[in-house]
Q: What sequence folds into this?
């Protein structure tokens, strides 16, 4: 195109012999261009440019763009800073009193009053409700007092029921906590009931103090949990002493991260060929499953077992013989190296959830009894991993048994179950299993709430920090689900429906994890700018140069012509 | 003022308690293939033996080996890999677990491993299942250059990719502290772009410096180990004999001698909380070993009958709970949230059917439409052009 540009009249035909250059250029001047051909050339240039600009650029832009779904970043950030949800734990305590409703109301008011005075943790509040006493009215019947309907026998959200029992003898008031049902029996003398006129009675104060004590550990746990979350927390903060904080920290280091399913592995290791079998199935059935069943609302468990013969502990660990106690002793610092990680086939990576290992080691008779030097015990717990028990063959069975019976396994199973309790983060008090489990439900619900929120925050920060990772719509969907379930969980907590709160928090956590670990969110590999130039230049250079040159030349001509016309 | 001070001390104490780790993980990566890169695999296998010796179980070691030197036809000692000309120690042994092998060792897989963005069917043994209490040792070796490390002569990971991957790990609380070690040419450039906290990084050579092999085994026919790795291992073998060792990272770093290594090893402290001082105080075992704080329990005598009774009581309690639960279920058979769950699952399933498509083809239809439109546009322009010409 440019070569035929007659207006400039300065182009020499290339084939011209150089010897005769001047004469040829003088004689072979091309004829002036027709107006038509000029317009044709211009429309060709313009149409090329139009294709490039209107089609090429958008296609390039579209095909190299990284798809990033819209995420509700502000909401996510707000959740992460716990601005949206201030978790509260209103616990319902039902009181059964075999006294006239009016007196009971009076007692309740008094107790509630002193309870509120004792409480220094506003997010965790016990509220007393009057229940129908089973021995006064029919248990299945609902009673309505001041518009509050309580049906103790069916309501799972009642944390504890307090039963008042009048007695004539013994020291009163006294209380008895049922170990296997969430019930506190309070025995009182008839004179201790508050009268309509008096304010505050010893019985009310006593009940309040007892309740406060019962939920002390739970309050500490929750307060500690809340104190670790970011955002405004002044209203819920409860002052904990440094000793308690250290203890709680220690416990949280020990406990496993929450998972809906845990895989329990029970392994028998022995350096020789006996025992070659163990009656583990019936032992688990008898000693373990009741406890595991009681936790079904919180976790599921899968179990596998293995027997490994000729597998001794780590060879660098050398127990010493203690003459005094006639036993082989392991030093405490040896314990961490005791597990022969190089050879023992632990964590067989089966099952869906994280594995909790329980190792039963039966030492060789020549090295028995084998105990821990410092404590004299035979078991230890490895935080977030599992537990180890050394089961020394008893003196009685001289002919070492090839098969370990269920009874022989009983002590080890007992140790394992206590170890499992602390690995799961079950609180140590009060001495009532249902109460401890319901505490665990609340603690886990709250901690899942926080961890899902913090995952959301992390995702939001990454969204801003790494513009090169694609965000598919699935992520946005998961994020929406997460926030929705977080809100539901938070509302359930506030309403005191802790099981449903745990359920929602669990869904929220799972969705948040899914969003964060979305498979396609792996960013493009980083390319330095010189790489990009190197890729684009050979491709676009040959196309771009004639295009740009033609446009420039045409522009130049137009401007020159315009100037010439103006001056003439 | 006093109160404030007490509060501060308390905070510090709390923080100190937090700084415990409960598990150790190791990610050991060789990135080069082919027989003449024997030494890179030997480097990784030597590190593998060391961390295993110091107690990290196989389930917490992720090893990436792009080639199988032990079974290479050129290997005159089939089934073995040695890291020394004396051939005293067969690194391959009979108890090694390679998690990523051959063509599985890619930049993408490495980044997926670190960020745990893996498919659901990935076995747990091939995943880095760490949390905020895990210390991670990342060791990489191969051929590299300024701010990049080659993977299998086919692709490369840049210092930026690595830094971004670590940042994602930090955001998701996937590590407590990390030791990043790299033995490659211009290794120190690889950690220069890191910006996430709690990382201690060390490399074999400065920018524009090569990292050299230590010596060759004439029978094997190739170099068997790199210098930087060799002297690290020498220190670990001679000074860290068992899991109760109290040798610090500072001592390891002090043992680096540029004269012997033939390049200048670098150490980056500034990302570590407390800087150089704190980082140097960390034990070797904090990264290379698996020191667990165990809690020994006393010899409490178990009252067997009482315990049995307890168990029976728990059983009864569970029975009772179940009965009650069933009763409530019968009364209100469907919880609102359950129905919702089902819907969600259906949605997921629908999404899952298109999950097999690759990422970049995610919006396949729209792209196809665009492509078709552009083709059509070109054709139309051509037709118009020829029509104009014919006129």
A:
């Amino acid at each position: 195109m440019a070569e035929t540009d007659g207006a400039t009249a300065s182009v020499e035909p290339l084939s011209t012999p150089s010897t005769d250059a001047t004469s040829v250029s003088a004689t072979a001047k091309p004829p002036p261009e027709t107006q038509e051909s000029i317009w044709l050339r211009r429309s060709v240039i313009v149409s090329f440019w139009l294709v490039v600009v209107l089609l090429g650029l958008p296609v390039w832009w579209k095909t190299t763009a990284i798809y990033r779904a819209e995420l509700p970043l502000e909401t996510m950030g707000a959740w992460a800073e716990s601005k949206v949800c201030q978790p509260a734990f209103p616990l319902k305590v039902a009181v059964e009193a075999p006294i006239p409703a009016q007196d009971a109301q009076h007692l309740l008011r008094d107790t509630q009053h002193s309870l509120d005075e004792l409480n220094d943790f506003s997010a965790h509040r016990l509220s007393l409700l009057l229940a129908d006493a089973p021995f006064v009215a029919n248990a299945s019947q609902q009673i309505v007092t001041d518009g509050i309907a309580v049906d103790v026998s069916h309501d799972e959200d009642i944390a504890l029921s307090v039963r008042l029992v009048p007695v004539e003898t013994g020291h009163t008031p006294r209380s008895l906590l049922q170990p296997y049902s969430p019930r506190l029996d309070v025995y009182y003398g008839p004179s201790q009931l508050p009268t309509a006129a008096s304010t505050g009675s010893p019985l009310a104060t006593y009940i309040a103090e007892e309740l406060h004590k019962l939920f002390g550990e739970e309050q500490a746990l929750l307060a500690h949990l809340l104190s670790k979350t970011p955002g405004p927390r002044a209203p819920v903060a409860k002052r904990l002493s440094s000793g308690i904080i250290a203890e709680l920290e220690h416990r949280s280091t020990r406990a496993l991260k929450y998972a809906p399913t845990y895989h329990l592995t029970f392994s028998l290791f022995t350096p020789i060929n006996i025992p070659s079998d163990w009656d583990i199935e019936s032992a688990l059935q008898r000693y373990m499953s009741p406890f595991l069943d009681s936790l079904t609302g919180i976790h599921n468990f899968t179990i596998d077992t293995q027997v490994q013969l000729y597998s001794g502990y780590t060879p660098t660990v050398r127990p010493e013989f203690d003459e005094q106690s006639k036993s082989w002793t392991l030093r405490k610092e040896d314990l961490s190296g005791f597990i022969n990680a190089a050879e023992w086939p632990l964590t067989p990576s089966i099952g869906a959830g994280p594995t909790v290992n329980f190792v039963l080691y039966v030492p060789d008779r020549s090295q028995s009894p084998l105990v821990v030097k410092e404590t004299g015990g035979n078991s230890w717990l490895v935080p977030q991993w599992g537990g180890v028990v050394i089961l020394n063959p008893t003196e009685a069975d001289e002919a070492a048994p090839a098969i370990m019976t269920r009874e022989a396994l009983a002590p080890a199973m007992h140790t394992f179950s206590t170890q499992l309790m602390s690995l799961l983060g079950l609180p140590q008090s009060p001495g009532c299993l249902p109460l401890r489990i319901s505490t665990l439900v609340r603690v886990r619900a709250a901690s899942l709430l926080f961890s899902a929120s913090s995952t959301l925050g992390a995702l939001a920060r990454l969204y801003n920090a790494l513009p090169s990772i694609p965000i598919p719509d699935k992520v946005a969907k998961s994020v929406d689900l997460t926030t929705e379930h977080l809100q539901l969980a938070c509302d359930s907590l506030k309403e005191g429906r802790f099981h449903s709160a745990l359920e929602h928090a669990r869904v929220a956590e799972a969705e948040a994890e899914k969003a964060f670990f979305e498979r396609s969110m792996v960013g493009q590999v980083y390319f330095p700018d010189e790489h990009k130039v190197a890729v684009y230049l050979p491709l676009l250079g040959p196309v771009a140069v004639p295009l740009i040159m033609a446009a420039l030349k045409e522009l130049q001509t137009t401007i020159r012509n315009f100037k010439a016309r103006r001056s003439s | 003022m006093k109160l404030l001070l007490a509060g501060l001390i308390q905070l510090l104490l709390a923080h100190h308690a937090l700084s415990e780790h409960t598990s150790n993980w190791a990610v050991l990566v060789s990135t080069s293939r082919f027989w003449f890169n024997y030494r890179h695999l030997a480097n990784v296998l030597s590190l593998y033996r060391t961390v295993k010796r110091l107690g990290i179980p196989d389930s917490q070691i992720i090893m990436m080996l792009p080639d199988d030197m032990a079974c290479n036809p050129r290997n005159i000692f089939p089934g073995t890999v040695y890291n020394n000309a004396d051939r005293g120690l067969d690194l391959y042994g009979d108890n090694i677990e390679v998690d990523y092998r051959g063509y599985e060792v890619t930049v993408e897989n490495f980044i997926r491993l670190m960020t745990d963005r893996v498919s659901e069917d990935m076995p747990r043994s091939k995943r880095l299942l760490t949390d905020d209490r895990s210390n991670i040792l990342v060791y990489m070796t191969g051929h590299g250059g300024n701010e990049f490390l080659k993977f299998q002569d086919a692709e490369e990971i840049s210092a930026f990719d690595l830094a971004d991957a670590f940042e994602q790990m930090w955001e998701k609380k996937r590590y407590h502290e990390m030791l990043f070690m790299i033995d490659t040419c211009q290794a120190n450039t690889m950690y220069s772009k890191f910006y996430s906290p709690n990382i201690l990084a060390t490399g074999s050579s400065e920018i524009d410096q090569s990292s050299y092999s230590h010596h060759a085994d004439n029978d094997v026919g190739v170099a068997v180990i790199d210098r930087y790795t060799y002297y690290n291992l020498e220190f670990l073998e001679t000074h860290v004999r068992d899991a109760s060792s109290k040798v610090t990272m500072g001592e390891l770093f002090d043992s680096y001698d540029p004269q012997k290594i033939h390049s200048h090893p670098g150490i980056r402290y500034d990302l570590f909380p407390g800087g150089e001082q704190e980082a140097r105080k960390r034990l070797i075992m904090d990264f290379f070993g698996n020191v667990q704080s165990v809690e020994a329990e006393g010899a409490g005598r178990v009252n067997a009958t009482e315990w049995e009774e307890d168990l029976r009581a728990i059983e009864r309690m569970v029975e009772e709970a179940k009965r009650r639960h069933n009763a409530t279920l019968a009364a209100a058979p469907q919880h609102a949230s359950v129905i919702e769950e089902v819907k969600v699952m259906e949605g997921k399933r629908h999404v899952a059917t298109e999950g097999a498509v690759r990422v970049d083809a995610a919006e396949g239809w729209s792209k196809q439409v665009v492509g078709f439109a552009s083709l059509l546009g070109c054709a139309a322009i051509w037709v118009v052009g020829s029509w104009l010409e014919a006129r």
